[in-house]
Structure formats: C-alpha cells, structure tokens
Amino acid sequence: MTEPISVVLIDDHGLCRRGLSELLEQRAGIKVHGTAGTADEAVRLLASTKPDLAIMDLKMSPVDGFRLLTRLRAEGIGTPVVVLTMSDSQDDLARAFRAGVRGYLLKDMDPDDVIDAIRRTARGEIVVAPTMAVKLVDMLLPGETKRSRESYFRQLTEREREILQHLSSGKSNKAIAQSLSISHDTVKLHVRHILSKLGLTSRVEAAVFAVEHRVASEQSDPSHQASG
Questions:
Q1: 180-196: burial string, b at 16+ Cβ within 10 Å, e else
Q2: Each residue's pLDDT tens digit, 84-101
Q3: pLDDT digit string (tens) for 165-206?
Q4: Rg (CA), the chain
Q5: pTM (2 d.p.)
Q6: N or C end of the chain: which has fewer CB within 10 A?
Q7: What's the CATH number where 76 sits?
Q8: Range of the domain at 209
Q9: Residue 51 covered by a domain
Q10: φ, ψ for residue 200, nearest 5 deg
Q11: Could you tell me if 80 and 148 lie in one domain?
C-alpha cells in the first residue's frame, strides 16, 4: 500500500492551521505530521519529522516566510516548500521562487485545487496558482524578450508543441510519457529542445509561457499545426 503524503503546516494563524489540517487529513488522506506557528517551531518540527512537503504562509510575524526559507536552507533542511498565502504580489511570487519554493498557491483557491496542487508537488512537479500565471510570465518574459520568444514558438515541431501543452497543465515528464505513449527519455529530450528553442531555462518558465500563449488552443487550430 502506498504511503500517504506527509506534510507540515507553517502559519502564524491557528485557525488557518487547524482548518487546513482537517481539510488535508479528512478530505484528502494527506498525513499532517504537525503544525508550527513560529519560525523556531517550524525548524524543530521539520528537522524531527522530515515530511514530504512543508506548506508555508509568507506573511508571518515576527519572522516572515522569506526569512524562514533562508534559515531552513542555512540549517540544511531541504524539505520542499509550497507557499500558501493571501499575497498575490508579483514581487512576493518572484522572491519565493528565487528562494527555491516548489509551489505558490493562494488561500482563496478552491480547496480541491489546493489538494490537487499539493499532490502534484509531492510527485515532483512545480505548481503555481492559475491567477498568478500571467504575473509569472510578466516577471520572466519582459518586453522585447517576450516578443522574440513568440517568434521562437513558431520553430517548435508539432510534437514539441504537444509536449509544451502538457507542461502547461503541470504534468511531470513521466506523466507526459504515459499520455503520449513514448519513453521518459524521449520526453526529456523534447523538453530540452523546447527550452533551447524558446530561450528558456526551466520547466516552470516553459509551462507559464504555454499558459500565456494559450498553447492548448493553438494545438487545436489547424492553421497552427507545424510539420516535423
């Protein structure tokens, strides 16, 4: 039997910790190893329980989430972190990803979407709240760079566009390989080609680029079908 996903919840509001804990355990079967309301509690809990994920708010007092992220890395605690916050600030989004988080979710998301995003992150994927996708694009693809990459997009083969479409939905290489009935190594090769052709450096950038350029709709439009 597969072990349930294990998480630690870090938020300085007790009601939020309790509500999220009940949601994850009772509705999703996700094991909550413990909750922390301060940075010191979070460090001790993560060090002792070693969960699959840490679900963390950013706007905490007196030590905010960004300072806590720095402290965790300094102390060698490598637990993947998913931010769950009310902040829809592009600056906070940028700082969080620069700090190495694996996901950025908003507290006003549908509970089922939060659960799904946590499960995907536990599988190794990177998740972003849908309403933050455009802000991430603006952060990554400013001005002339964005326009030039629109022209690069036309260089993608039909198969590469198909894989880019799957990336836009947050699928892992393994999931893409299963969907397309091709090998995992073939998907990895295509992803490398996509990043190279678009001038990108990560799967996150590729996924956000795909969302911004509505690759799914492009794929369904015969006028945009490329050969090769």
A1: eeeeeeebeebbebbbe
A2: 999 999 889 988 988 889
A3: 888 777 788 889 999 999 999 999 999 898 888 777 777 778
A4: 19
A5: 0.63
A6: N
A7: 3.40.50.2300
A8: 141-224
A9: yes
A10: -105, 170
A11: no
